[in-house]
Structures are given as C-alpha cells and as structure tokens.
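To illustrate the input format used throughout this study, we show a single complete record. The first block contains the structure-token representation of the backbone; no residue identities are included at this stage. The design step must infer an amino acid for every position from geometry alone.
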C-alpha cells in the first residue's frame, strides 16, 4: 500500500517550529488583552452563504478558493477562508449590539483556501484575527492599526511601515469605479487575462495586479482620493492624524485595494523588512457594509488578520528572538535497571514540584541517557549505590558541578536552585 502523506498544500508544524508559534500566539494574546480585546472561538466551517454573500460572489476567494462540501443532511458548508465574516455573524447571532459598543474581539486559528502552494503560503494557514464592531470612529481604525504595529514591534520586527488607502463607500465608490473604467477602457487589450475579467466585475482590483504591463497602465489611473465623498475624506484625514499621534511611519498607496469586496473607507497593510524586500505582515481595514450583506442591520466594523506562518518567516529572516526554546529542568538518569522503580518515583517527585522532567524508558545506555540529559538544566543520577543510601547525585549541566542530595529533598532543592 502506498504511504499516506498530508494532502498537497498542507503541512505539519513540528516541535522544532511549533514552539515559535506558541511564542507568537502568547505575545499576541497578551497584547490583545491589554488593548481590551476578548477572545472568541469560532467554528471552522460555516454555511457557504455566509462567505458568498459576505465576501462577495465575484472575489477570487469565493469563486476559486473555497473548500465547499455537503454534509450528510445536504447542507452546503464551507471551511472558513477568513474569520471576519464569521466574527460579524457571531456578533449578530448573539445580539452583541445590545451591549456597550464597540465590541472588541479576537480569535486565532486555521483558515482554508485552495490556492497555489508556495513558500510561506499553504492551503491551511493560521491567522491571528482582530475585529472591532459597532463604531464608525476613525480612532477605532487607528486602534486596529496601532495594535498590529505594537505586535510586530514587540516581536522585534524592523522597519515597520503602515501602507494605507481609502477605498471609499457606496456613496462615492460608483463614481470612482466609473472614472477608473473610462481610463482603463482604451487599454483593455493590453491588460492581463485576469485584469480583463475584473474590468466589469471588480475594476478596483486591477490596481493591485502585480504584472508589470498592468502596473504600467494603472500608473496614470485616476486617484481614489479625488473621488472620495466628504465623509470618506474626513474619515481618512482623521485616521492619518491618529497614525501621526502614534508616531507611525505611514505611506499612502492608491493601489492598495485588497481582495475582498466588503472593505469600505480604510484599507491598510503593515510592511516590515529591508527596503525593496519588504513583506506585508498583515492586512485589514474597515467593512461597514459586511453585516448588511449577510442579512443583518448596519454594523460598522474594522479589523485585521495576520498569518502566523508569515510572521514566523519574517521573524526568522530578521533574526528576531522567539524567547527561550522549551527545555527540561531535570532528566533522570537510571544507571541500574534494578532500581527503575526508585527512578520513576524521583521523576514524579520532580514533576509534582512543577519541574519539567523526563526519563528514558527504552533501557538505553548510561552514555546515551547523559546525552539527552545534557539538554536539561540538571541530571539526576540514580544507581544502586545511591538508592541504597537514599540519595541522588545531582549534576548541574551548565557548570558540571555535582553533589549528592537526599532522595526526598532532591526535587524541592532543584526547584529552589532553578528559581534563584
Ligand atoms: Zn464615501
Ligand atoms: Zn493584470
């Protein structure tokens, strides 16, 4: 039988990497809570309609990238491709609008998109997701951007820059759309295939095409800033003032439109890394019409999502610290199989003291056991002689110092040494 491997585009995050994820998640959790955000756990799958209506039927995500399936009862369900639509669904379903506003929530977990796998991009990927629902205040946009910036600053990333744009609202976007289409129409034949298909359905997305020919054409495209209504331009100015207050390095990019239909007003990304080789580490913005598009009342919202794979990759490239790699406090070296029971007792005494402790169960040689013990802070060496005298030889691996401790005191004594 052929060996069964993980499906294409997904992967295992193994212990040599998972501790880095835990570090990023821990930093994120602490920071989100310190900004007044609360965690929610959302389902991995939702009714397909949530995404087709919320994200938009004509987006790449909904058209090509969703994992959609029927359950046993014939319902169409979809593995979530992002968390924002689910968060808004949850806010509506649990009547969060009736409490104090805004509601500040975060979640973290896997998302699923059928995309071409490449370095740092997988079909199952983890996102940190932060949303504020129920406020139109531009300072809430700043709060979201500020939280993401603070996260990357704490993680040690360098050259952080906020790229920001406004994508307008249902009042002013139609005029901009038309202006853009009139500008692009004479160049239709020169645009790439996907841009040609976007021309009628989603012309704004032509602005963020990465193909050089398309970029050259859109260079002279009308500026969205000239089309914004008073409300949108006032909102954008207030967001920029707020970012100045934070001392954020900010850059306006009219090409930043983002791939999802639900964005209104603010769209942003945070870049990090050396100039010319900068990576977007998060993307987000305001989505004041998402709740209505999934059948709810008008609920303004703003948020961001950031992929853990991308964060870890960027941190590795920049040589950022992930804190201390997990290691054992003590490793019990059992020199003589005849006193295995004593060794097991010692192991659990260490664990009851709250220490990280382990031992060998395979009857490996003392030499091999010492090799493993060298990864721990202390080796607790137990042979027949020590057991007979009620002692254990404890070796501090960093210094090589070794001494005998009473068997019954060894665990608490090691714990007090470690806390010093
Ligand atoms: Zn507007
Ligand atoms: Zn193109």
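Output of the design step:
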């Amino acid at each position: 039988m052929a060996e069964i491997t993980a499906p294409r585009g997904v992967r295992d995050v193994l212990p040599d990497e998972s501790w880095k994820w835990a570090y990023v998640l821990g930093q994120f959790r602490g920071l989100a809570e310190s900004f007044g955000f609360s965690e929610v756990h959302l389902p991995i799958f939702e009714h397909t309609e949530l995404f087709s209506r919320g994200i938009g039927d004509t987006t790449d995500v909904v058209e090509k990238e969703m994992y959609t399936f029927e359950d046993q009862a014939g319902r169409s369900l979809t593995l979530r491709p992002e968390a924002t639509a689910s968060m808004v669904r949850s806010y509506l379903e649990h009547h969060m609008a009736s409490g104090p506003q805004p509601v500040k929530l975060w979640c973290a977990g896997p998302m699923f998109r059928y995309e071409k796998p490449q370095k740092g991009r997988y079909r199952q990927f983890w996102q940190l997701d932060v949303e504020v629902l129920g406020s139109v205040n531009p300072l809430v946009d700043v709060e979201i951007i500020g939280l993401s910036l603070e996260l990357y600053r704490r993680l040690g990333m360098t050259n952080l820059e906020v790229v920001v744009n406004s994508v307008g609202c249902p009042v002013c976007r139609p005029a901009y759309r038309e202006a853009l289409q009139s500008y692009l129409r004479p160049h239709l034949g020169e645009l790439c295939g996907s841009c040609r298909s976007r021309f009628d359905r989603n012309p704004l997305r032509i602005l963020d095409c990465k193909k050089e020919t398309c970029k050259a054409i859109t260079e002279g495209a009308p500026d969205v800033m000239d089309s914004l209504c008073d409300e949108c331009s006032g909102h954008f100015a207030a967001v920029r003032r707020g970012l100045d207050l934070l001392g954020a390095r900010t850059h306006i990019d009219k090409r930043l439109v983002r791939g999802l239909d639900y964005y209104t007003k603010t769209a942003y990304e945070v870049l990090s890394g050396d100039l010319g080789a900068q990576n977007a580490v998060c993307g987000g913005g305001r989505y004041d019409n998402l709740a209505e598009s999934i059948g709810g009342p008008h609920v303004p919202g703003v948020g961001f999502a950031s992929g853990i794979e991308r964060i870890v990759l960027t941190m590795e490239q920049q040589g950022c610290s992930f804190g201390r790699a997990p290691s054992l406090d003590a490793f019990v070296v059992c020199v003589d199989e005849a006193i295995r029971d004593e060794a097991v007792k010692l192991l659990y005494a260490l664990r009851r003291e709250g220490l990280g402790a382990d031992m060998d169960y395979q009857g490996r040689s003392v030499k091999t056991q010492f090799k493993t013990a060298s990864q721990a802070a202390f080796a607790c060496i137990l042979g027949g002689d020590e057991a007979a005298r009620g002692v254990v030889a404890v070796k501090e691996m960093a210094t090589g110092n070794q001494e005998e401790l009473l068997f019954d005191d060894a665990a608490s004594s090691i714990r007090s040494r470690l806390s010093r």
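Structural context for interpreting the output: Residues 15-34 form the longest helix (20 residues). The two ends are 55 Å apart (CA to CA).
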